[in-house]
Specification:
The protein is an alpha/beta fold. The protein folds into three domains: 117 residues, Methylthiotransferase, N-terminal domain (Rossmann fold, 3-Layer(aba) Sandwich); 231 residues, tm_1862 like domain (pyruvate-formate lyase- activating enzyme), CATH 3.80.30.20; 55 residues, OB fold (Dihydrolipoamide Acetyltransferase, E2P). It contains 13 helices and 19 strands. Strands 2-1-3-4-5-6 form a six-stranded parallel β-sheet, sandwiched between helices. 41% of the residues are buried. It binds S-adenosyl-L-homocysteine, iron/sulfur cluster (SF4) and FE3-S4 cluster. The site of S-adenosyl-L-homocysteine has 16 residues, from strand 13. The site of S-adenosyl-L-homocysteine (SAH) has 16 residues, from strand 13.
């Protein structure tokens, strides 16, 4: 008999892909997706632990699920918070039926069938598991190239929720990319916590290969027109990688360079492994090699050891690199991390630093966006929006909207930009 699955996904792109894997496995058990929680036989939440806020959100969300669900339905908690809180979730929310940690996704069918199932083994090896096929988008495919993270940055809980780093064999990745091209998706989006450290460790014997080699091999697949990836680590941005990135015509010219802090001292405290100078050297070399690149970053403001002078270093990097996109967060102490017990910076100071940084970024962004007016961008259209608008991404990752209808979807077209806002560009398709 057909059953309905409702799934809510929080967190990063790795969780989005994990949710696709969960859906694929459950489709084999006769589940069908629904957006209507009231009719769902199974309600899942795929959680994030990276900051404290999303963890609070988990308990308020599942409390709300419990109120509206139909009799006999099940609630499962998956993902990174499932890994880090484990059985505590049953204690705080006794109505939860199962807890399935990140990196244990392949056990979803067993979890659904077993009362009070719990599995949170962060060393469980899913790097060669053959998941079923489900894709949220017909236009692009997320592809995992590694699981876990070996870096152990002082503030970060991810190594405790996703375990040690393991690369997925190249053959599995290439086959997945070929299947993606065969279904007509022109874009692949490679995922991992440290993608440019690819090839360091596999579960079984494997030929020697690094991320640059993998990119080249993927770019040889017919039908793939765009390759994106996240997250690369600034430490591993060697010349070979920057050169392949810049010269390969299928690799989209947008690079994520998670800075975290511009101060060499704070970077050392964070155990990031690079200095302010190294970061600037890599970012400016990239701008040099690839003038059309857009660079995004993540920044943590008010790390416990950050002085005003350290913060000024972060601002200095912002002014020099002029990032196209900045994701900035106040430091949030996380359990099981070395930075957990450090004395916090006063919250007023932290908020003031965050809003100063965001204000500066907005000024830089306004300049970047208005400079696009009059320019042409190649846009791959993926999404229908309100008011007869269709949206897509430029090769350099700007969000671009035009007037049009579904016949634009899945096509790559030239757009002349006529208007710029902070978050999007607007224009007309040209021939
Ligand atoms: N592997 C990626 C990061 C994944 S976590 C990388 O190294 O870039 C995504 C972002 O969350 C991080 O880049 C960081 O900026 C932020 N983050 C992680 N832990 C945090 C914490 N304890 N407090 C605030 N922000 C944090
Ligand atoms: Fe976390 Fe650092 Fe690993 Fe990124 S590289 S997931 S910030 S430990
Ligand atoms: Fe991603 Fe959040 Fe886990 S950012 S790796 S879902 S802690």
């Amino acid at each position: 008999m057909k059953k309905f699955l409702y799934i809510q996904t929080l967190g990063c792109a790795m969780n989005v892909r994990d949710s696709e894997h969960i859906i694929a496995e459950l489709k084999n058990q006769n589940y069908e997706l629904t957006n209507d929680i009231n009719i769902a036989d199974l309600i899942l939440i795929n959680t994030c632990s990276v900051r404290e806020k999303p963890v609070h959100k988990l308990f308020s969300e599942i409390g709300a699920f419990d109120k509206v669900r139909k009799a006999g339905s099940k609630i499962g908690v998956c993902g990174c918070t499932a890994s880090h809180l484990g059985a505590e979730i049953f204690r705080r929310a006794p109505f939860v039926d199962f807890v399935l940690g990140a990196r244990n996704v392949s056990k979803i069918s067993q979890a659904v069938q077993t009362p009070k199932f719990i599995s949170t083994d962060i060393n469980y090896d899913e790097s060669e598991f053959a998941f079923g096929e489900f894709r949220g988008s017909p236009y692009k495919s997320y592809i995992n190239i590694m699981i876990g993270c070996d870096k152990k940055c002082s503030y970060c809980i991810v190594p405790q929720t996703r375990g040690d780093e393991l690369s997925i064999p190249a053959k599995i990745i290439l086959d997945e990319a070929r299947r993606s091209a065969a279904r007509g998706a022109k874009e692949i989006f490679l995922l991992g916590q440290n993608v440019n450290n690819y090839g360091k460790r596999f579960s079984n014997a494997h030929e020697k290969i690094d991320f640059s080699d993998l990119l080249v091999r993927l770019s040889e697949i017919e039908g793939i027109e765009r390759i994106r990836f996240t997250s690369p680590h600034p430490l591993h941005m060697d010349d070979k990688f920057l050169e392949v990135f810049s010269s390969n015509s299928k690799i989209c010219k947008s690079m994520h360079m998670p800075l975290q802090s511009g101060s060499t001292k704070v970077l050392r405290d964070m155990r990031r492994g690079y200095t302010k100078e190294w970061f600037l050297d890599r970012a400016l070399k990239l701008r040099d090699l690839c003038p059309d690149v857009s660079i995004s970053t993540d920044i943590i403001v008010a790390y416990p050891t950050e002085s005003e002078a350290d913060f000024a270093d972060t601002i200095d990097v912002l002014k020099q690199v002029k990032f196209e996109q900045v994701f900035s967060f106040k430091f949030s102490p996380r359990p099981h991390t070395p930075a957990q017990n450090l004395a916090l910076i006063d919250d007023k100071v932290a908020s003031a630093r965050l809003s100063y940084l965001q204000g500066l970024h907005n000024e830089i962004l306004d300049e970047i966006m208005s400079a696009q007016v009059g320019r042409g961008h190649e846009v791959y259209f993926e999404e229908l929006r309100e008011n007869n608008q269709v949206a897509g991404r430029s090769f350099s990752n700007f969000l671009v909207c035009v007037n049009g209808s579904e016949e634009l979807l899945g096509r790559t077209l030239n757009v002349k930009i006529e208007k710029a806002a902070r978050m999007a560009l607007y224009g007309k398709v040209t021939l």
